[in-house]
Write a structure and sequence with these properties.
- The protein has a five-stranded antiparallel β-sheet with strand order 4-5-6-7-8, with helices on both faces. A three-stranded antiparallel β-sheet has the order 2-1-3, with helices on one face.
- 43% of the residues lie in helices and 10% in strands.
- Helix 4 packs across helix 5 and helix 7 crosses helix 10.
- The protein has 13 helices and eight strands.
- It is of the alpha+beta class.
Length: 378
Amino acid sequence: MLTENGAKVLKPKKYILKIAFYEKARFYAKRIALNESARAYNTAKATEFLNDENVQFVKYKMSHTHPRADICDYFANADLYGLGKGIYPKEKAPLTPCHPFCRCNLIPKYSIKGEANLNKKAVELAQKRYFDNLSLKKQSEILGSYDKLERFKKGENLFDLINKNRPKEYHIKLLENLKVKKVKSQNGKENYTTRSQEFRELQRASKALNDKELQLYRSGSKTLDKTLRTRFSAIFQREVEHSISDNGDNASILKNTADFKIYKGINGDLFYDIFEINKNYLKNGELVTLHEKYFYKDTINYLSNDGLSGFAITKKGDLVSVFNLNDKRGFLRAISNEIKANGRDTQFLLARTYGKNRTCGGANEPKAFRLLFCFNIP
């Protein structure tokens, strides 16, 4: 069919079919892209949990985007191991996504007390108890059909029923089935990831702080007392020295004064673990960014020997993750020359942070401003 200008116009029926074809192709492309990106991200997080000795349990956090009941309702609400709804020993947790467009994920749980009941019969009984408390309609929605529900009641394995007719690469599996590879450092040795029991206790205590306690530290209303600070520094110091001596880290002494002994080139995993603890006890700690652990593998990391102070410099020269929980004065003075040598131009930092007209060394600049950005130390 042609218009008055001679342009070709599709007939309504052909036009509708063409639109339907392209929309269907677009839908499948979007589904694949979203699912594969979610799978890659969640697999990386799951591997991180498996490698972290401090994470023993995880919770299946269900997305609010589910239009109807499905297998995610089961994973998020069943109490299979006596730990609470949707809480699993990390190896027994299901890897997400569990179906197309699934936005559920796993989050670590640090405050779980007690042990998981891994007895197979006890788990099967808990599974049966969960389904018995649901309507037949919801049971069938979770399993996919009434036929699968009947087969499940006759004793067929739940995972076998869910995974039937799915391509193998899209089977629901547990974290224990992931093939986790150990990451090696540049010198060919395995990174130091085994922390002492005392260090793990500090991690657990730090992550167990509630919002009220965090706010007290962040506002400065509460600080670490001398006894706690001494305990922190003793444990951190052992971790730093152990990492350097036993694992061939290329760390060197940057500064050695009466107050500060600072190491340059600290292992990224160790820097992350120590900074993560310190951050929760810092005044205004919420303003300091804790990046993902992999971020610190590509930065130059610095720590004081007691682990209470540190910072990192990116390849671009950006100063990041500066912290100081030490009660000694002079940390910024001790690191100023290193930041000048390896960091970006300080005028650039000032312009980006405070505007183009801000200059270093002005008589009216606050002392903290001069210390951190201008290094014009009186």
